[in-house]
Amino acid sequence: MGARPSRRDQILDAALELFATQGITATTTRDVAARAGVATGSVFYHFATKPDLIEAVLGRAYVGPDLQTIADRSDRPVRERLLEAAQLFLATLRQRRALLSVAIQAALVDDRYRLRVRANIDDEIGVLAAILDRTPGATTSSLSSRAIAATLLRSLVTTAVLHPEPIAGEHAFIALTVDLFVAGAHGPGPNAGAPSTEILSDSGR
Amino acid sequence: MGARPSRRDQILDAALELFATQGITATTTRDVAARAGVATGSVFYHFATKPDLIEAVLGRAYVGPDLQTIADRSDRPVRERLLEAAQLFLATLRQRRALLSVAIQAALVDDRYRLRVRANIDDEIGVLAAILDRTPGATTSSLSSRAIAATLLRSLVTTAVLHPEPIAGEHAFIALTVDLFVAGAHGPGPNAGAPSTEILSDSGR
User: Per UniProt, which keywords does this protein have (chains A, B) (predicted)?
Assistant: First the structure.
C-alpha cells in the first residue's frame, strides 16, 4: 500500500458514496465501477458479487481500537471513561455518516448484512461493558453492564441519525444518562430476574 | 371514507412500499403512480411534489395514542408503565418496519424530513418522560426524565433495525435497563450540572 489508495480502496470509496446517496438497492456494480473509474471486471475481480462488495464496505474499520484505548485507562473513574467512550462513538458515527447510512440500510434490507452490522456494534458494546465489569465495588452484573452499554450505544446510533451536528447541551445530556446508569448500577435497585444469556450478544438471535 | 382505501391512501401505501424496498432516492413519483394503479397526475393532485409525498408518508399515525393510554394509568407503578410503553414502542416499530425504514432513510438524506421524524419521536419521548415526572418521591428532574425517555426510545429504534424479530430474553433485558434507570433516577447520584433546556426537545437544535 503506497500513498495512493489501492484499486480495491477506490472501489470501496465509490461504493460507499453511491450506496449512501442513491441507496444500496438502486446502485449497480456497474455504477460503482463507473464512479471509481475502473472497468466493471475490476470490481468483480475484487468482489465476486454485489453482496460481497456490501459486506466489504460494512467491514471497514470502526471505532473499536480508539474505544479500547479509553476503556483501558483503569486509572480513571468509570463514569469519565464511559462518557468519553460515548462521546467518541457519537462523534465517529457523525464523521462517518455515509458508513452509518449504508450500515442502517443494509441492516434493514437483508439478514446477512444485519448480522455483520450487529457484530460491529456488538464489539463496541463489549468494550463499554468491560469498563463497568471491572469496576470495584459495583453491584453490576455482567448482564447489567451489557444492558447499560447496549442501551447507551444503540441510543447514540439514533442520535447520530437524527442530529448530524452536535446539539446545544448534548454533552451534559449524555453525562446525565451515564450518571443515571452508573447510579442505578451501583445501587441495590429492584432486580429484573435472570434473563437468558443469549441476549448477552447483540449478534445473537 | 368508506371500506375501500381512498385514492390518497392507495398512493401513500404504494409510496411507503417502494420507498422502503427500493429507496426514497431511487423511487420516482411515476413509479408510485404505477404501483398504486393511478395516473401520475393523480399523485400530483394529492401531493404537489415528491417531498410533500414523503412528508405525508412520515406523518402517518405513530404509536402516540397507545403510549398515552399506558402513561395515563397512574394507579400502576412507574416501572411497570415504562416497561410496557417500551415494549409497545418496540413492537410497533417492528410491525411498521417499512415506515421505520422510510423514516430513517428520510432523516439521513434531508433536513426537512429529519425535523419531521424528530418531531414524531419527540412526542413519544414526552409521553414517556411524563410517566417519570409524575412519580411521587422521585428525585428525577424533568431533564433526567427526558434523558431516560430519550435514551430508552432511541435505543429501541436501533434495536428494531438490528432485530426485526424479538430476541430470546429481550423482555428481561429491557426490564433491567428500565430498572437501572429508575434506580438511578431515585437515588442521589452524582449530578451532571445544569444542561441547556434546548436539549429538552428532540426536535430542537
Answer: DNA-binding, Transcription, Transcription regulation
